[in-house]
Backbone:
């Protein structure tokens, strides 16, 4: 992938935070928004094409670490040996070599870039017009690039980060939590275990072998690189023999199949103010055994960093390093469950090209809309049922109002709403004296998803708290339950009169929660709420669901969220033919012990291999939506697996309507917002409202009851047929918080 900077025709200065400078005032005051678009198509060998120079490992304006992989396309009328390349006037031609598989193409790693702007020039001396210029902007390897100012406080995790031999990384080298890059080796034993290889020159008696997807038969020796980038701890693993020369981009490991899997870890609660001490995992023997390189970072675990913008930035920087060190992969697969699915979906949509295909599990569209709203509603309903009106609703009625399959999901998700409480959850490494407390430490670090994304949302001038895209004004809790006769009119009226909301400190309030307009606009405009019509429109997607709606203790990973994502793809693109959904029971979770996931990985590889072998494989280009669908493997369709000891594969279109055998096996259930009338896309933060209309109900209200209903909703009830307040597609892709 070659990045080309394509500025929207909006220009001028930009200052923090996002809501005013990049979004609300973008069209008037101006802010530079960048979109990844294809380079001008050029056959390197044709006579009428110009000499061109472009970055390969990163966008030219988002390079990090002082070096970048560069490509020069030389027209056939010139001899590549005559080309000269300079960096700010210094000759760097010696760093470039011909690419054997592509005549007329030179690639080289240009280093010694200074922070800020650098000028790369390719020329053919003595040939007028044979000149190409590229401006490269270099950023520190510690970031930031697109995420805005670093969060503070920030606790290092190096001393708790465990390596394959059981040791830790030890204390950090600086305030950015940096460590010296190191390489360790491990191997897969014939019994399936991954063991440290204490002596890299040894060959243990229980060393396994494997055959990769390219047919290479190699010993199962694993090279693990560990370092720090963007203040996160990254790891890159691949099959490599420690007795052979170190793999490089010009001399790759025999065991690498030229493909990369980037893993994303789950969580969210307490995911702020820390580097973390885990990654998404880089030692899966199924992935490695097939020959994939596997990469991840501690800031790609949502339990460490519940901020998709920072996660996307980290992915971008780690992948840049991978390409410069080992060579640009043929394609990259994003892989993650729960919080890992947020990252996969949003990175693919907002930063097209970082991930070429994604395999997600236990998925949600994003944190900001469906998840946070469901958590808010669960917190309010749990408080109402247990404190405000105890005993007034049976367990069955509570479930009818919430929509969930299990009543236990109400308190379960209410507890999950602690991510909305600034004093409830922090990483263990953050000292007590640094934590927010409304009474004892009002200036302390606030632990919410909004405060962790303050570079996007901005702050409340009076309290200093982050502004919030969070709202329940006009929401008629239990509307469908009322219309189906599950609750009576008095229960409906009392619930909606007294359910209330929460303030910025998550304290219960008599009034409903009102979203901050600028934060809501920022959530939509920057892609914090998944749209699905940008990069995802041309991204192959396999969405796997290990069914947990029926867990007795309740669970947040409900099947409905996957169908919400599909509904968003259809709303944005007119179809979701680039997304395949798979369902099975929860015996294997999101692991490659699952036959469904092994099947998914095989089929995704086939899909992306086909795409990368076609016309769309030209540098800088992305496949069209039509190409993505056309090249989907013929046998890859929606399916579920039965609950039998030896599961049967059942092929059918999966949907929220719970049709067919799969719908009976794994039924989806609504959330409180859907029970209140919201559409399946579930992407409205603050609804537009309309007056109460008796015709909207299947029950007849008396005049007094109508008065009470209108008093409960003085500004009207949600009109779900309209878009939400401030709702619009993102302003563009490749956005950043301030100028890079």
Residues:
């Amino acid at each position: 992938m070659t990045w080309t900077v394509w500025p929207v025709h909006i220009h001028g200065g930009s200052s923090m935070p996002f809501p005013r400078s990049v979004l609300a005032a973008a069209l008037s005051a101006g802010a530079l928004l960048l979109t990844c678009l294809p380079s001008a198509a050029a056959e390197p060998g044709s006579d009428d094409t110009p000499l061109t120079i472009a970055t390969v490992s990163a966008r030219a304006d988002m390079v990090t670490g002082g070096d970048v992989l560069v490509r020069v396309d030389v027209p056939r009328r010139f001899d590549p040996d005559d080309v000269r390349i300079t960096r700010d006037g210094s000759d760097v031609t010696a760093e470039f070599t011909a690419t054997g598989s592509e005549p007329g193409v030179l690639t080289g790693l240009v280093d010694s870039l200074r922070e800020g702007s650098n000028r790369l020039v390719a020329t053919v001396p003595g040939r007028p017009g044979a000149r190409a210029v590229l401006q490269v902007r270099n950023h520190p390897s510690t970031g930031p690039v697109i995420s805005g100012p670093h969060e503070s406080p920030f606790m290092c995790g190096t001393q708790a980060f465990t390596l394959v031999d059981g040791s830790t990384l030890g204390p950090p080298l600086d305030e950015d939590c940096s460590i010296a890059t190191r390489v360790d080796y491990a191997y897969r034993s014939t019994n399936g275990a991954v063991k440290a290889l204490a002596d890299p020159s040894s060959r243990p008696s229980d060393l396994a072998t494997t055959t990769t997807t390219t047919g290479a038969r190699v010993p199962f020796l694993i090279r693990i690189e560990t370092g720090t980038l963007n203040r996160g701890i990254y790891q890159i693993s691949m099959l490599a023999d420690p007795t052979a020369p170190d793999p490089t981009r010009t001399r790759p490991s025999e065991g690498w199949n030229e493909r990369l899997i980037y893993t994303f870890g789950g969580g969210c609660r307490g995911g702020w103010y820390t580097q973390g001490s885990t990654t998404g995992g880089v030692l899966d023997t199924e992935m490695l055994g097939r020959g994939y390189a596997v990469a991840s970072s501690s800031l790609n675990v949502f339990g460490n960093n519940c901020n998709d913008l920072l996660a996307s930035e980290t992915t971008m920087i780690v992948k840049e390093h991978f390409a410069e060190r080992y060579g640009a992969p043929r394609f990259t697969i994003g892989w993650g469950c729960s919080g890992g699915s947020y990252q996969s979906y949003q990175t693919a949509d907002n930063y097209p090209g970082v991930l070429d295909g994604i395999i997600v599990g236990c998925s949600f569209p994003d944190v900001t809309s469906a998840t946070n709203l469901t958590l808010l509603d669960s917190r309010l309903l749990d408080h109402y049922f247990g404190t405000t009106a105890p005993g007034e609703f049976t367990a069955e009625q509570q479930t009818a109002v919430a929509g969930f399959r299990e009543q236990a999901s109400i308190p379960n998700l209410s507890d999950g709403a602690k991510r909305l409480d600034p004093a409830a959850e922090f990483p263990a490494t953050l000292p007590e004296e640094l934590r927010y407390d409304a009474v004892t430490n009002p200036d302390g670090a606030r632990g919410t998803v909004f405060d962790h994304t303050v570079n996007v949302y901005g702050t409340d001038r009076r309290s200093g708290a982050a502004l919030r895209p969070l709202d329940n004004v006009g929401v008629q809790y239990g509307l469908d339950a009322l219309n189906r006769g599950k609750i009576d009119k008095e229960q409906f009226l009392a619930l909606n009169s007294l359910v209330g909301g929460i303030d910025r400190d998550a304290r219960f309030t008599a009034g409903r929660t009102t979203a901050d307009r600028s934060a809501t606009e920022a959530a939509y405009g920057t892609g914090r709420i998944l749209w699905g019509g940008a990069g995802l429109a041309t991204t192959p997607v396999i969405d796997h669901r290990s069914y947990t709606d029926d867990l007795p203790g309740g669970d947040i990973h409900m099947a409905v969220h996957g169908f919400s994502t599909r509904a968003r793809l259809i709303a944005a693109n007119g179809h979701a033919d680039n997304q395949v959904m798979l369902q099975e029971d929860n015996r294997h979770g999101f692991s490659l012990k699952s036959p469904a996931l092994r099947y998914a990985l095989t089929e995704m590889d086939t899909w992306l291999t086909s795409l990368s072998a076609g016309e769309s494989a030209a540098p800088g280009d992305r496949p069209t939506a039509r190409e993505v669908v056309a090249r989907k493997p013929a046998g890859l369709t929606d399916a579920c697996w039965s609950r039998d000891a030896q599961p049967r594969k059942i092929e059918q279109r999966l949907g929220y309507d719970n049709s067919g055998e799969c719908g009976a096996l794994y039924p989806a259930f609504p959330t409180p917002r859907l029970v209140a009338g919201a559409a399946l896309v579930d992407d409205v933060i603050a609804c537009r409202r309309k007056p109460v209309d008796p015709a909207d109900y299947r029950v007849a209200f008396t005049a007094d009851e109508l008065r009470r209903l209108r008093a409960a909703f003085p500004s009207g009830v949600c009109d779900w047929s309209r878009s939400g307040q401030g709702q619009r597609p993102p302003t563009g892709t490749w956005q950043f918080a301030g100028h890079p």
In short: Residues 367-388 form the longest helix (22 residues).
